[in-house]
Specification:
The protein is of the alpha/beta class. The protein is built from nine helices and ten strands. It has two domains: about 180 residues, Rossmann fold; about 90 residues, Pantoate-beta-alanine ligase, C-terminal domain (Pantoate--beta-alanine Ligase, Chain: A,domain 2, 2-Layer Sandwich). The structure holds pantoate. Pantoate binds next to β3 and α6.
C-alpha cells in the first residue's frame, strides 16, 4: 500500500483493500465507491465530490477492465494515466485508490471465470454494437461490490444504459448497495466529458458537437411526439463528414425499451456515433407530448 498524500492510499491488491475496509467499517465508517477506468476528467471528479458528501470513506477504483472490451475495440489504446489520476484524487481527499492488475482481478484469465449476464437489455443499443460489453461491466462491478463492500456506489448519467443495468443487477440479485447517479458534466459548448475525447483532433472535436446538438433538436421536437423527436434528432447529423451515427433512440427510463408512438411523459434519448475512429455516446431526458 502506498501513501500518496496525507490519507490517500494506493491499494493494488484485493486482500489489502479488504483489510482496510474491514478496519474502517469496524470503526463505524460508511463507504462510498466510485468505479472508474481512470483517465479521469471533471465528470469523474463530480462523482468523487458527491461521494465525499455521502459517506465517511471514499474509495475510487481505477481498472481498465478487459472483460468489457470486445476484440478489435480500443483496450490497448485506452488511456492509462494512473499518476495524474491519483494526484487529482488525493487533492479531493479520497481515502483509497484501488488499482489492481488484470491478474489480481481475473486470476483464472479472461475466459476462465464466472461472469454476470446482463440480460436482454444488455444486448440493445451499446450492447448491440459491443456484444458482451455489459456482461463485462456487470462482472467487474459485482466484483468491486464484493471487494469494497460499499454502502453507496456512484455512476455518471453519461453511461445511462450502464446505470440502468447496474441498478437492475442490484435489484435482481438483491445486492446490499445503493446506486447514486450524478448528472452529465459538459464542456461549455455542450460536449459531454469522456475519457475518449482526448482521441479527437480539433476538427473531430468540432464534429463531435453534433451529438449534443442532436439531443437539443430532439428535445425541441419532443412536444410533437416520438416520431418527430427522432426525426429531428437524426436530421441533426445531416452530412457531417467523418461522423457515422450508430443509433438514435428514445426509451422509457423505467424499462429501457423504445417508446411507442402514443407514449407521453419523461423519456430518455440515447445517441451513439463514431467520430473519426472514436466511439462517443450521449443522452438527455425529454418530456414527450403535449399536455393538451
Ligand atoms: O464506466 C466505467 O468507467 C466502467 O464501465 C466501469 C463502471 C468502471 C466498469 O469497468
Amino acid at each position: 500500500m502506498t501513501e500518496v498524500a496525507a490519507g490517500t492510499r494506493t491499494v493494488p491488491t484485493i486482500a489489502e483493500l479488504r483489510a482496510f475496509v474491514a478496519e474502517r467499517r469496524a470503526a463505524g465508517a460508511s463507504i462510498a465507491l466510485v468505479p472508474t477506468m481512470g483517465a479521469l476528467h471533471d465528470g469523474h471528479l463530480a462523482l468523487v465530490r458527491r461521494a465525499r458528501e455521502l459517506a465517511d470513506l471514499v474509495i475510487v477504483s481505477i481498472f481498465v477492465n478487459p472483460l468489457q472490451f470486445g476484440h478489435g475495440e480500443d483496450l490497448e489504446r485506452y488511456p492509462r494515466t494512473l499518476g495524474t489520476d491519483v494526484a487529482a484524487l488525493a487533492a479531493l481527499g479520497v481515502d483509497a485508490v484501488f488499482a489492481p492488475t488484470v491478474d489480481e482481478m481475473y486470476p483464472r484469465g479472461r475466459e476462465g471465470g464466472t461472469t454476470v449476464h446482463a440480460g436482454p437489455i444488455g444486448d440493445r443499443y451499446e450492447g448491440a454494437s459491443r456484444p458482451g460489453h455489459f456482461d463485462g461491466v456487470l462482472t467487474v462491478v459485482a466484483k468491486l461490490f464484493g471487494i469494497a463492500r460499499p454502502d453507496v456506489v456512484l455512476f455518471g448519467q453519461k453511461d445511462a444504459q450502464q446505470v440502468f443495468l447496474v441498478s437492475r443487477m442490484v435489484a435482481d440479485l438483491d445486492l446490499p448497495v445503493r446506486i447514486e447517479t450524478v448528472p452529465i458534466v459538459r464542456e461549455p459548448d455542450g460536449l459531454a466529458l469522456s475519457s475518449r475525447n482526448r482521441f479527437l483532433d480539433e476538427a473531430q472535436r468540432q464534429a463531435a458537437l453534433v451529438l449534443a446538438e442532436s439531443l437539443r433538436a430532439a428535445d425541441a421536437a419532443a412536444a410533437d411526439g416520438p416520431s418527430e423527436l427522432l426525426a429531428e434528432g437524426v436530421a441533426a447529423f445531416g452530412d457531417h463528414d467523418g461522423v457515422s451515427l450508430d443509433y438514435f433512440v428514445c426509451v422509457d427510463p423505467d424499462t429501457f425499451l423504445p417508446i411507442a408512438e402514443d407514449y407521453r411523459g419523461r423519456a430518455l434519448v440515447l445517441v451513439a456515433a463514431i467520430v473519426g475512429s472514436t466511439r462517443l455516446i450521449d443522452n438527455a431526458f425529454v418530456e414527450v407530448g403535449r399536455d393538451d
